[in-house]
């Protein structure tokens, strides 16, 4: 188990990596799924042998409220159907923490429940916010869970210029689920999970 990293350099590196992803040209992405709530694309990840996913949709709410529902905190467990538990293990400052969370089984439990320990950082970006994270090798792995690993991930939430009460939400996700899994099952699950994330989030914000 590694010691906790110094939060400031890790936060800066993470933010810079996410901005790099945000600047990847449209031609590099391949469409993976499209629903009324979101569009999901993917490209081979440079971090591991799976894919980097990009998910985007317009959400009818202000930026701060949307990000409060996504980042570690009391809202996330209420609406995210995939997340089953969440604990803040360490807090560095108000916008920076280490959290441990577990996810439900997927695809008729072909993908068993997973546990993640992530460093999470939320910061301003242009007129909106960026909330991002990366997994750490920290804390004991609990029995009955496979420890997954999130390579740099994050969500940009920017108010629409002509409709400031609406926001453009763009996520970059690259999750290594680990364990003995067929990659095709993981890829199917990821596209659907990201599309469902948008529809679940929109429902939560309306309540």
From TrEMBL:
GO terms for cellular component: cytosol; endoplasmic reticulum. PROSITE patterns: START (PS50848). SUPFAM superfamilies: Bet v1-like (SSF55961). It comes from Bucorvus abyssinicus (Northern ground-hornbill). InterPro entries: StarD4, START-like_dom_sf, START_lipid-bd_dom. Pfam families: START (PF01852). One of its GO terms (molecular function) is cholesterol binding. GO terms for biological process: cholesterol import; cholesterol transport involved in cholesterol storage; intracellular cholesterol transport. Gene3D superfamilies: 3.30.530.20. Residues 10-207 form the START domain. PANTHER family: STAR-RELATED LIPID TRANSFER PROTEIN 4. This is STAR4 protein.
């Amino acid at each position: 188990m590694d010691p906790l990293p110094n939060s400031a350099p890790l936060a800066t590196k993470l933010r810079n990596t996410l901005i790099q992803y945000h600047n990847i040209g449209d031609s590099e992405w391949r469409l993976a799924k499209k629903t009324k709530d979101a569009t999901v694309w993917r490209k081979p990840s440079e971090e591991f042998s799976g894919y980097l996913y990009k998910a985007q949709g317009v959400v009818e709410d202000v930026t701060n409220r949307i990000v409060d529902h996504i980042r570690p905190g009391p809202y996330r467990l209420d609406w995210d159907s995939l997340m089953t538990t969440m604990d803040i293990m360490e807090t560095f400052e108000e916008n920076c923490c280490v959290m441990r969370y577990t996810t439900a089984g997927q695809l008729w439990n072909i993908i068993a429940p997973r546990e993640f320990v992530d460093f999470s950082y939320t910061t301003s970006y242009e007129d909106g916010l960026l909330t991002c994270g990366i997994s750490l090798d920290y804390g004991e792995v609990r029995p009955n869970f496979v420890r997954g690993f999130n390579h740099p991930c994050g969500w940009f939430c920017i108010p629409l210029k002509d409709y400031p009460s609406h926001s453009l939400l763009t996520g970059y996700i690259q999750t290594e689920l680990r364990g003995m899994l067929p990659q095709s099952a993981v890829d199917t699950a990821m596209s659907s999970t990201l599309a469902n994330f948008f529809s679940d989030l929109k429902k939560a914000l309306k309540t």
